[in-house]
Design goal:
Layout lengths: L2 E8 L2 E6 L9 E8 L2 E14 L2 E6 L11 E4 L5 E4 L7 E2 L16 E4 L16 E2 L4 H6 L2 E2 L3 E5 L6 H16 L3 E6 L3 H14 L12 E6 L5 H20 L4 E7 L1 H14 L13 H9 L9 E7 L10 H7 L4 E4 L2 H5 L12 E2 L4 H4 L1 H27 L6 H16 L8 H4 L8 H12 L17 H6 L1
Parallel strand pairs: 8-14, 12-16, 12-17, 13-14, 13-15, 15-16
Antiparallel strand pairs: 1-2, 1-6, 2-5, 3-4, 3-6, 4-5, 7-9, 10-11, 17-18
Length: about 475
């Protein structure tokens, strides 16, 4: 283990001089010192070799109290995360330290956060649909195992509840686990998510081993180094379950834009010349390194669900545009749908998926999904006429379309297990075949005599006919 000493501190950028044996790029270095009689254990990550035996590093936490001359130790490898069953129900920071005040972690082993993606020969190339049990997602924008899903939505339209329900359903339907990486989240959001998951039973406070999720946070108030690496820290935990437990794992990244933003800050701190719109010149490479590790192998899969913030609603901004290149499906949560009381507030006209193709989901599923979209689009086109002239001016065909569209719209709602504590309704998971059959019956007019109120917040079509 080579030792060095701090020679310069400029905010989160720390330069270290080594007498011999320069640590390679991305190695983790540690410094121990005291601030006001409180011990501090600081982790640094090597970013550049400057010459004269100096390395330039980025700090993973605040550098208050750090002084020149302090001894720095090379850990001999990248930042490592504890992995295994012991991480379930726990909350970690970017360097793998538990921050939930529940004592040390019983780790089976440690995985470095910088790892190679699985070789192409080990990857699974046959597309497989991952059933979620949520009707609107399974019908309109099905997930692929090992795929990447982007969720777009403003504040308060239900992103967190959809995330919690997915975690709950994947655990129930596939016996899988989930990992949540909070990248540049507000502290309040992280706190709310933890408590809501505890209430919904996703985190089991009595028996942490029975929990179905591990959480890793690098929040808004932390230095850019932590926000840049926290997604990789979460990914390292996820890869263990895929590669060694052969499971289908869900990785949630909230918010992927802040990953790009942190990279931009780090790039500026390291003195790189900015590229388009002030972003780092390495934006595409950094995004690719993260996204290429999220994939299916012949043993298991990592499916990721990424919340995407769109700066100033400009989809051509380099950060969301680079993210789009990697996504297999996009889910758009629409405020207008949430205002109707229809949850999940997924917009079936704006949401898309590469998996919605006859050769992947089957011809019947594809036809029903497209017919549902066609009816809802016609309903949307008729809104102005209905608002000005009323329903009476519509042709008989359009009237029938409107009645069926309203039933479809309500049938796209669904009670969630994770929202049961708020709504008092028992959650429902619906099999894909039942979802397709239900919408096909509505489209074919089999339920024209059923009042539209019966379709609201129901599971399968059987519940609707029972009233």
């Amino acid at each position: 283990m080579s030792l060095g000493r701090v020679v310069q501190v400029v905010g989160p950028v720390v330069d270290v001089e080594f007498d011999s044996g320069l640590p390679p790029i991305y190695h983790a270095l540690t410094v121990d010192y005291e601030v006001e009689h409180q011990p501090v254990h600081l982790t640094l990550e090597v970013q550049q070799h400057l010459g004269d035996r100096w390395v330039r590093t980025i700090s993973m936490s605040g550098t208050e109290g750090l002084k020149r001359g302090l001894e720095v130790a090379d850990t001999g490898g990248p930042i490592s995360m504890p992995v295994g069953e012991g991480v379930m129900g726990r909350v970690f920071d970017v360097t793998g330290n538990p921050v939930d005040e529940r004592g040390p972690v019983k780790a089976e082993k440690f995985y470095p956060i910088h790892r190679q993606p699985p070789p192409l020969v080990d990857q699974s190339t046959s597309p497989q649909v991952l059933t979620t049990g949520i009707k609107v997602i399974d019908l309109i924008c099905p997930f692929l195992k090992g795929g990447k899903v982007g969720a777009f939505g403003g504040a308060g339209v239900g992103k967190t509840v959809v995330i919690m329900e997915l975690i709950n359903n994947i655990a129930k339907l596939h016996g899988g686990v989930s990992v949540f990486a909070g990248v540049g989240e507000r502290t309040r959001e992280g706190n709310d998510l933890y408590h809501e998951m505890s209430q919904a039973g996703v985190i089991n406070q009595q028996d942490l081993g029975a929990s179905k999720i591990a959480l890793v946070y690098g929040q808004m108030n932390e230095p850019p180094g932590a926000r840049l690496r926290v997604a990789l820290s979460g990914l390292a935990i996820t890869e263990y379950f895929r590669d060694e437990k052969n499971q289908d794992v869900l990785l949630f990244i909230d918010n992927i834009f802040r990953f790009s933003q942190a990279g931009s800050e780090v790039s500026a701190l390291l003195g790189r010349t900015a590229s388009a719109v002030g972003y780092q010149p390495t934006l595409a490479a950094e995004m690719g390194v993260l996204q290429e590790r999220i994939t299916s192998t012949k043993k298991g899969s990592i499916t990721s669900f990424q919340a995407v913030y769109v700066p100033a609603d400009d989809l051509t901004d380099p950060a969301p545009a680079t993210t789009f290149a990697h996504l297999d499906a996009t889910i758009v949560l629409e405020r207008a749908i949430a205002e109707l009381g229809i949850y999940p507030a997924v917009d079936p006209l704006a949401s898309t998926s590469r998996a919605l193709a006859p050769e992947i989901v089957g011809q019947e599923h594809y036809d029903v999904a497209r017919r549902v979209q066609k009816v809802l689009q016609r309903f949307k086109d008729l809104q102005d006429i209905i608002a000005i002239l009323g329903m009476d001016e519509l042709s008989p065909e359009d009237k029938q379309t409107v009645f069926r569209a309203r039933k479809i719209q309500r049938f796209l709602s669904q009670p969630f297990s994770s929202a049961q504590v708020f709504t008092g309704r028992e959650g429902r998971q619906v099999a894909v075949a039942d979802t397709v059959r239900g919408f096909k019956e509505i489209l074919d007019g089999a339920h024209d005599s059923v009042p539209e109120g019966n379709f609201y917040m129901k599971g399968g079509i059987e519940e609707v006919t029972q009233g």
